[in-house]
Amino acid sequence: MSLSVLYILDINGTVLLFRDYRGDVDKNVIDNFIPLLNKQENLEITSPILHHEGTTFAYIKFNDLYIVSVIKKNANVALIFSFMYKFIQITIQYFDKLEEESIKDNFVILYELLDEIMDFGYPQTTDSNVLQTYIFQKSYKLKKIVSVPAVVTNVVSWRPEGIKYRRNELFIDVIESVNLSVNSKGAILINEVSGCVKMKVHLSGMPQLRLGLSDKILLAINSYGLGQESISFEDVKFHQCVQLSRIFDKNISFIPPDGEFELLSYRLNTDIKPLISVESRVIKNSYSRIEYRIKISAQFKTTSIANNVEVTVPVCLDVDSPVFKTSAGIASHVPEKSAVVWKIKYFPGGSEHFLYAQFKLSSIKTEEKTERAPIQVKFRIPYFTISGLQIKFIKVIEKSNYKALTLVRYTTKNGEYLISFN
């Protein structure tokens, strides 16, 4: 990754703290950051990366602070941003808030953290649970154990020992998000599904979990590198706690972190029929009246129901006196968004509904051919997944043999779901 210097600046560009890792950058180079930032804003350009005479600034603005990485050599900028966000996460876990006051009050421990999480521009230990076992704060003073703690070399560094709960519980959420973009001619530009398995773990001790997944995703995982077709799953990624060598046993084994974490993420590479389709028509009867006609259809199975469906229909800026007719739900004009928001609480699969909206135009003017913003659709379908991924079983193995309450939920929801006017 080869990061040279990490700076923390206030909103005016004053250096609050910095750590030079490689010694290959002039100390005054940060003086160029704010002028470059102001120049970018004047040109109405937004970019998190700035360049100046062979030096690159990658920055994040957070709570009126600038976290700035200075890069001299060619580097993977995605990893650098990932590191900066991880640094923010670590500091929040230490101080609750990352702001100017917390930096001034805790600069000693911040320097120690910067020394531990990176060495010569390369990330080292960035697990906050590990760091808190040997770098901790008391009355703004640092106490550091010189010897390397066991958790740094232990294979279970993500979970401390001695956790106890009065009630042992385990919650699993399988969530799939649909990203769809349809142009004015009805052609699908983007059609993808991203999914994840999230867990909330409140279990005592050091439990070993065995999770059984449906055969589809197991075949997809096991086919990587074997020249086999991976069905519809792509980019399958596991949390570090999963024992990858045991995936071939038709289940996955792991010792989970405590609390909430993402066990698994994936994408689907199979085109799917849009779950909710939208047909739209705009009719300008005269220079003083305009109509919007919208039809939405639920194209998922009839046994499922979409909850809290919200269709946002952009309208002209100069409209008033709205008149609505709907076959279901409630429509309202939201002037600050220049849109009609149509809300339907329950939308069963296989059904369709209509919206008719009529407005008066507040000013008489010739029609302008401007590109309309797309219609946005929000929805949530419980007990349903597009991929068919299922949790077949979950076993909790712990030496005390306690019983754990387990709950599995499935949800499909909208991601960026945009449909242009026909």
From TrEMBL:
UniProt KW keywords: Coated pit, Membrane, Protein transport, Transport
Annotated compartments: Membrane, Coated pit
Primary location class: membrane
A GO term from the CC aspect: clathrin-coated pit
Protein topology in the membrane: Peripheral membrane protein
Residue ranges constituting the MHD domain according to the UniProt record: 167-420
InterPro entries: Adaptor_comp_med_subunit, AP2_Mu_C_sf, AP_mu_sigma_su, Clathrin_mu, Clathrin_mu_CS, Longin-like_dom_sf, MHD
GO biological process, one term: vesicle-mediated transport
Name of one Pfam family that matches: Adap_comp_sub
Domain of life: Eukaryota
UniProt KW Protein transport keyword: yes
Annotated family: Belongs to the adaptor complexes medium subunit family.
Protein name listed in UniProt: Adap comp sub domain containing protein
